[in-house]
Amino acid sequence: MASVLKPHLTRLLQSLPPSPPPEQLKELVENTLSQAQTNLSPEICKSVWEHLLKTAVFDLACTEGEALKDGGMSYYEQMKGLLDVVLTFTELEACETTLPFFVLQDLLEMQTIESCSHIFSWIEYRADRLMEGLVPQKGKALVLLRTLNDLLRRLSKTGSTTIFCGRILTLLSGVFPLGERSGVNLRGEYGPTWEPVKISAEPDVVMEEVKKEEEADGMQLDEPKNTPVTPIDKKEGASSAKNSNTINSGGDFYNTFWSLQLPFSKPPLFALPGTFDEFKEAVTKVLPVIKEATAKERAMMGSRDKRKREPESEEGSTVTEYFFAKFLTSPELLDLEIADTHFRRQFLFQLAILLTHLQTFTKAAKAGWATARNRSLQMDFTLEPPQAEWVQDTLSKVMEELKQTTPNGRAFAETVSTILEREKNWVKWKNELCTAFDKEPWSDEINDTFVGLLEATEQLRLAMREPPAEWEWRLGTQPLTEIWDMGYRELRDVQMPFRAGDVKDFVKELKRTDHKIEMRQKRLDMMAKKLAAKPDSEEAAKPAEDVAMPPVEPPPKPTDEILIELEESKHRTAWVALRAAREVHLQHFGKIGTGDIELLLKEIENESENGKQVPASSTSTDAGDVGSGSPMTNPRTVGEDGDIKMRDR
């Protein structure tokens, strides 16, 4: 069966131009499929085409070694062309939709890292076509996830592929939703457990070996014994001997230091009795040594600056180019490892991670996340208050020690703090069993139908396009309009207080007071409407009772202090106006009722228009002459308080 379709595929591959456009390639594949009509069933044809395409891809992959010797890019161009053919066959339903992913899975396993990078570039370029119809946790999505995870595991064992790993993770984050649980360690499983390493302390054997080495060195000395020893050599020798005696004496520190890797790799050990005390004792012994090494390094850097030595060019270029595939646990290397800044940073970072993890097991913290549904993430361990205090203090010391490391210790410590803070949020999300945190599109129910934001706000947007209503305050603002309505026209009108004078002045002041009363009443009415008690939902749900209720008398209107003051001011102004007008216009008092000042002003104006100048009262003149004297001989004035006073001549 393969022999029937193989010639057609061979002719297709031979007729392909270099890097054909997708439309041209699709047309060529369609012609090949139309020419390869057979009596075989569609399922068998799919299987045959898949076998032939896989064979063509793997045959080309076998030539990778020879092709890369030439140093050209023709091999990668041919491989990308073959992958395009496989993808086109899949899009035309001549093969299963998972075929490209199975081919990529096998291909990435047999290619070098450099070739995998070029193949992944093709995946990025064809991502839109490859991911069409992809459903997370089903079908080709699982194959893609498994393939790229296997590739990530290969890359994690080397230190120069960080950018490649980032490209893979970026693609996965774009393909799968942010809350996808397939990449989350839901069961809380830890990595491989650390295999303990120990050395036995045998002082006698060690001393004998040291003596033998010294004797052998003495026999092989070629230089004369009187070779001068510089002070620097003495200092370095004493320093190295001191470090050797401090760190490796008896192997105690070696065993203590590497014993910490066991709780680092397996935190559930803290559920065992005595584990925390051993961990605390080990950390208490190791941290001073780490601090001493950091202080010594800073002192050496300071002395080097004093000697004005220029830093080595290679040191600046290789500061960040380091990678620890695995810790080297040789006893002879521990001194050098602790003297290395990057090694100390790795250890302190591990310690900070574990201490942060232990803080989630205090009694208060566990009450916030421990539930029956996430038992796999829990352990039978609770951090007591004294232990929690020690963990917090130690974590602060670790972060402070990270700031003291060089180079850029403060920036490194801030980065570590940011990473730990973000990890707290991810751990919280995992403890809550990865609840969905992406928000659904906004919707609203209108006429028993959920509609989107655009449709729900259509009427509101149409209303916003209508011309606005006429502004309530014709002079721009409420205070300015009120001042104008009260008769103030100049700044002097506002600054100068009211002074008693002609009847017109009293009428003007009364109108201002009336306007103030009116505005105050309007404001009270608006406040009453806003504060009107709305019926509660429960009360509104109750049906109205049929029993006739007795008539309720309306409650008295609430008294307002400002209104009371304005009314009193109005009465006081009217009383003063009447007292001021009684001397000249007393003849009009019988026409103004109970003291209408505006009506009095009209009578006065009518009198002036008719040209009538009638004295107040002829009879009152005589009485005035007898009682208090003539107004001409003893004139009177009206004071500011409304009292009529005698004016001195």
Report what the structure shows.
By secondary structure, the chain is an all-alpha fold. Helices cover 61% and strands 2% of the residues. It folds into three domains: 2-175; 243-308 and 323-465, no CATH class; 478-529 and 558-646, no CATH class. The protein has helices at 2-15, 22-35, 42-61, 64-69, 74-91, 99-110, 113-125, 127-130, 140-155, 162-175, 203-219, 231-248, 252-259, 261-265, 275-306, 313-317, 334-339, 341-358, 363-369, 385-404, 409-431, 453-456, 458-465, 478-485, 491-495, 503-530, 537-541, 561-581, 597-610, 618-627; strands at residues 444-446, 449-451, 636-638, 644-646. Helix 9 (140-155) packs antiparallel against helix 10 and helix 13 packs across helix 15. The N and C termini lie far apart (142 Å).
Q: Would you count the extended β strands for me?
A: 4
**Secondary structure category:** mainly alpha
Biggest sheet layout: 2 strands, antiparallel
Strand order of the largest sheet: 1-2
Radius of gyration: 49 Å
Query: In one word, what is the shape?
Result: elongated
Show unreliable segments.
203-211, 217-246, 308-319, 537-541, 613-638, 640-649
Number of helices: 30
Q: What percent of residues are in strands?
A: under 5%
Count of domains: 3
Q: Residue share in helices?
A: 55-70%
Mean pLDDT: 77
Termini separation comes to 142 Å
Biased composition (Basic and acidic residues): 534-545, 638-649
Organism: Mycena indigotica
GO biological process, one term: mRNA export from nucleus
Region (Disordered): 211-245, 534-556, 607-649
